[in-house]
Amino acid sequence: MMNVSEIIKLNLERQKSISAYYNPITGEGSTSIARNWVNIEGFPLEKIYLPITMSKDERIAELIEHGAEKFLFERNGKKASQREIVALWLQFCRTRICHDFEYWARSMAIISDKGKGRDIPFTLNRPQRKYLHEMEKLRLQDKPIDIILCKARQWGGSTLTQLYMLWIQLVHKQNWNSVICGDIEKQSSIVAGMLAKVINNYPQWATEGKKIYTSPYQGISKTRVISWSNSRYSLGSSQKPDSLRSEDICMAHLTEVGLWKSTAGRKPEDLVQSIFGSIASGPYTMKILESTAKGVGNFFHRTWIDAIEGRNNFTPVFIPWYSIDLYSKAIDKNHYSSFIDSMNEYEQELFNLGATLEAIAWYRDKRREIPDEWRLFSEFPSTANEAFQSTGRRVFKISYVQNMRSTCVPPIFKGDIIATENVTPQSERIEQRCRFVPALPGENVKENCLWIWLMPDCEQHIRDRYIVTVDVGGVSDKADYSCIVVADRMAMLDGGVPEIVACWHGHIEHDKLAWKAVEIARAYDNALLVIEANTLETEGTEGDNFEYILNEIAGHYNNLYCRTSGQEIKQGRPRRWGFHTNSSTKPMVINFLIKAMRDQLYIERCIETTYELDLYEIKENGKEMGAVEGNHDDRVMATAILIWVCYNYPLPTHIVGNKHNNRRTKIVSEASL
After folding, report:
1. pLDDT band at residue 671 using 50, 70 and 90 as cut-offs
2. CATH classification of 413-654, choosing from 1.50.10.20, 3.30.70.141, 3.20.20.140, 3.30.420.240?
3. 111-319: CATH topology
4. Any residues with CB less than 8 A from the CB of 546 and at least 6 apart, and which?
5. pTM, to two decimals
6. Cα(47)–Cα(67) distance, rounded to whole angstroms?
7. CA 23-28-31 angle, 5° bins
8. Count of beta carbons in the 10 Å neighbourhood of residue 52
9. Is there a contact between 521 and 468 (Cβ–Cβ < 8 Å)?
């Protein structure tokens, strides 16, 4: 940790950087693209910090070398008039707006000054220049401009995106159509007003004296054609997407995607795919997904995680709150030392991240206004991990979930397990009983699908190596999901920890679910099969016959969990198959999972499980636990039961002699655990 004097010195350097001179007309202070100083004698503005891409142009290089008058003399053979120099200057400026977005924005784009009731030229602020740098880096590499933007509020990320797209349509491309889609129609109408203002005030010198305008395309008011480039922009919302014209799209800006809600027959990812699927990726194409974060596990969060881990083509861009100049509170420099002494551990971390002391002072006041930490993180995130918070009553600590997520990897197999015939206990070889069938290209691999991280290994001659647990959900699309999870305990023989190796997730009839669990358990070397059955027994809705199904399974599979104790069975009590989750056992397995996460007592592989962990909360009554409303916790419960059983069931053992002769028929009960 730095001492007080070092912190003060660094803070002054940051303040100097923040207040550094920025002039998009001269190019001074620009950080979006590489530039160099040029001096062009005879121009109204002689010293310019010009984009390198422009200064390398052969004609521009000659102009820089000779100056305006000599340049014209070399071409015309006579001394240039002032009128000719002005004409050359305008031609230079028209060339510059092709290379220099910041100059174009300041010179061409008129926008409303938010909250002040006036129109001003568009001058980029610090976070906008950071965002522009990422877009320009992709454009100058002739790559598709595909970006997912996670942001704090109030810095104009949407404004920059829309005007950057308009810049491409007005300056770079003809017939280059775009789509702008928000969560609600009101957002689209705001966008329409902003674009209309820029176009209506566009200076005619940039279009060689022609007045540009927009008009409805084929009578559709929400799709406008720009006269100058014959490019269209269509406005719509996720709630009413029918107005979006998807043919021949080159650019799409989808804003506040984290707020998009699933409706009957349509999910956010379906609409996104229908829009993005119309774009043939190439230079100057754009796909922008932008939002403040709204929880985990949704489409925006999954796409962000995939971008961070390189599993898609999006460039992730995060803008923290402390990059926004608005969020700052003045501190008397004489009080720096006392303020630093009063900083808590989290505020010290903010400074390490790059926040100024003045920004931290503002944040301290904001924490008093918003005492719920998770709401503060959501509105004013310091990191992307903070941004994706969704509850203030979370059961599993953020740091624990992050530790679990660090070991998650894509599965090596996605598909299903298919029985070649009905269950046949007499068969000795697994491949005679079932087979793994990979998913077809384009097939949904998130629902009713088996993910495998480690294929079954039945050659090690280890008894009780694998354990399988099942959380039983409903059948309809709106019901809870069912989940089957498999753990490999071989490492526990040498003091290691169990590892998640497979997971099936989806909606399925209960008898098919039970037999699928049997096939998975059988494939994993006749694993102990633990089925959570109390929900169906107590609710008496979709699963009235589930107890019968379990009794049927018990007649064919010899390693099924039974909650009736051996003593009760001797006394003539009927066997009750399945794990019963109740007010006593549920806290037991959840608390054990918390301990296992804290002490890293198991290895998680399924990223979807970590999303559910983030959404698992203590309810308002302070007694019940479950997923945040509108979400699911089937993976959490299946995993919690699984890890508890892994540590409360006897360790795996090496089999001596013929492994199949040593396979015993047994009843595993709560008493034996």
Report:
1. very low
2. 3.30.420.240
3. Rossmann fold (3.40.50)
4. 472, 510, 514, 533, 536, 537
5. 0.71
6. 11
7. 105
8. 12
9. yes
